[in-house]
Task: structure prediction
Amino acid sequence: MKKGAARSTANSRKVGVLGSGYDPVNRIRTAPTNQRLSRAGQDRYRKRGADELEARLRNMPEEQLENFRALRDFSGSHSESPAPESREDEDMDPSLIHMRDVLDGSTRLEMSHAGGEFIAALQEGIEEEMSQTAGKKKKSSPDYRVRDDRTQNLVNGWKIQMERLVPAYMTWCAETDLGRPRETTPTMVEEMQITVVDLYETSTTNVELNAGGDGVAAALIKQGLIPCAPWNPSVAISTRVLELYRTTHVRCPQLAIQPFVKSLCDLHGVAYRPYLRDQFSVAYDVYLELRRQTDSLVNSALGRDSPKWRLKHACPACTYKLEGEEELIFSILTTMDGNDSLKRVLRRSKTDGSEDEPTLGPSKEREDSRDGGEDYFLSREQVDRWAKDRVADILPSDSKNPCSNRWKNMIDDVTSRMWGIFDETGIFLALCRHGFVLVVADMVRSGELSKYPLAIVNELLQAFGLKVGGGYDIGCHFDTTLGNSGLGDKARENRFRSLVGSFHGHAHNRLCQLSFLATYVEGLGLEDLEGCERYFSRSNVLAKSVCYASKFHRRQDITTFMKQIDDFETYPNLSKFLCDNYRQALKILKTEPELKRWMAREGLDDYDSFHVWLEEERQYLLGLEDGLPKKKEETVEMEYVRRLMNLQTSQSKLSSILSAEKAAAADRAAFNPTPASQVSRCHAIEKRNRDQELVQDLETRLNISSRWTSASPEWVLAVKAIKDREYQDALDQVEKIIVERLFEMTKINQSGTGYKMHKHIAKALQARSKAIKSAIERYNTVALDMNPPMPMLSWEEVVNYGFLADFDILRDTRDSIRSRPWTRPSYRVAMDNYFKILRAREEIKRLNIEIKRVVTWIDDEDRFLRKKEKQYEESDPALAVQISRYRQRRARSDHTHMLRFWALAKTPGFTGSLVPGRSVERQELRRASRATQQSAAETEIEVESAREASPQSEEMQDVGGWSSRSEEEWEDEEDEGEDAQSEAASNLLYQMSVLSVDRDDDRGSNRLD
Result:
């Protein structure tokens, strides 16, 4: 050290010198030193420094020596430091002089590898300055910053760096997948220490920052570390830890970030702190955003970044149409429903409202511009545009709905609202029949309003066009709403059909079933349209982790879960779904000979009778809507007869009391009226008088001059109407209790119902059984009074009734209906079996098409992705690695799919084909490419002709360049259709390879689900 930073006071002749030790053996600097030198020691220190400087100058190359002299001359001419001789002044503070020299560069301060000398010297100067000014009170300036936007500031910090972070992440993925060592360059200018959180330990790592690099965050990501802050991070989390949480969370959504971080703390042996959860959350958000951005680049490279591309290609079995396919009644079958489990609490500020009248404060959620829904969710604006069509629900309509009083989401729909503590009150989901997610919409501060299914249907019509079938638990009601809305004309033009799922359909009115139940809808096959219920049983476990999340994190969790389910649950089980449905259809078709034998015994020649019976039942039930047998309202005549009966009863009671008193008065010795008997007589008189007044009032209203008696024709008609009403009420009570019991039985068998809930439902069912027996006894009593008497009900018959359908037949009080064939139990069973056979045939027809679509898609997708991967291997290896990962995500299940299909092909009754076909979409693209190339070739000929006439035409040269580039882009696609014979041979080899695999693993394939 030549001239160290010294420290002394005015009363001391010694000087403190900061420096570093020197190890002559290893020729390195050691830890910092702090010496106290006297005046003689200072002279020796300066002399030794001058000697060292002179020795260095002698050994310095000529070029460096000239640079040193020029720098010294420049420093001497610009330095404002005092003259050297002034340093010897005893009254001057050497620390200020020496520190100024160090700062302006005139004095050199040597540093050790350990560092810290400069900071220590600067700190000493600061401490001395503070000690001198400690008695002075400084005026603090006001701080106007707020914390409401800190989340958005964090988001903005990451957003402006994302263009550099995504390539860094892709580079790290490529180095990891390809096994290449991390690239190091000799331009490293700095090392940065950072705390790294790994799976089993937390360590401090030196991170290399290269000259001209992309920043600290990118440097960390290139080493597989995700920083917890966009600028100057001090903590980073290993990518494998974040990936472990991601995969675990989507498999077990109950596992939120906080318990996972606590588990890491337990593994690391440290105490949990709340800020650790925040750090992990920031890093996890960045990691998911890197994955999203990477997937976006892959989709762009594959040409799959157009709007609604994911929706239009969500399911290969539904959307990958082939040339020469047989046309189906429904081009795609979907199901949709709302679910209120994934609610989110809106965080609000406290208010000063009273406890009796609590009020909700304003929202205190921080600003966050992120969405998180990707292309799965509809925006609130897309949904709210259909809110005006809510008026259609309360407008008069020609179509009456008999199920409106049986479903929660049909009742008070116009005023349906949700508690104010929630912002999002659930989701409204649409799936294809195979379970792939199509569209999702948030239900916002409301119940299941009609605007949500309307927005979903509009999106489906835009994506799929003609002949879409949409299942909904209240599809009968929604069909009317859709027809009256602004979307009605578009739906009718595209032949959209609103349907009802099988499970919910059996709880609908019988007339509704005949139009919407899956069993009777032509073209529906064996599809039950209840996929949403099965999906919600899995997604409901997300409720705990999203209830108190932010709007962004809730959507991000739901979207991540849905992508995982699509890729690793629904797609791997696609072939199982198709094969199981095929075997189920074949099993139903085996019952056809038994049905024919029954028809022969009953004298039926053909199947047309079943269609006739179904239409007769529909017409009969339609007649019930407007005819006499429907449930009557209370009339004035019926009330008049009831009052007459009450008057007769009260008059008879009063007469008996008076007769008893008269008989007792005859025997004066025994006659001793008690206060109780006198009160009874007074009450009887009052009751008689009150009933008489009511009767007289009704007689005045009905203009009756002569009071009716039991022999009057009017009396007989009114009594019959009263009995019919009592019969309907008794039947309604039995129906209501049975339905409640069946719904409770469904709940008790659901997965996730706890022990206490099981006990509670079981106890309620015991009470329900007693209520059912009481209702049956009341019904039988009323049924016997009917003229003619109605059928009696027993406990065994009622418990075995098929939901509400069988109750509708009993509602007619006429005897002629009993002679019709479709009212007999055996005929109804045969009719249902016949329509199931029809649906089984339709299912096989659809499955033959869907299986071939999947086989073709597997073949085309694998070849297409391998070509793209090879195309980018040289130009962009990192992108090629991501395309490879994209291909492997679903390819892992393709072999299992083929094994299942070949096992199905051996099943007797299989009529499909496993030979890949030709995709309609790909063929259209190839034809468009050929037309473009032909047009470009013609243009090129014209260009050549024009060039001969005018060689200077640069514009025509550009046209020819575009032509060559377009042909090059489509080169990989063209080789598939140039030679039909070569393609046929390739398909034959492909089938032979699969056959060989099937033969080698024949026993294993038969064991597959």
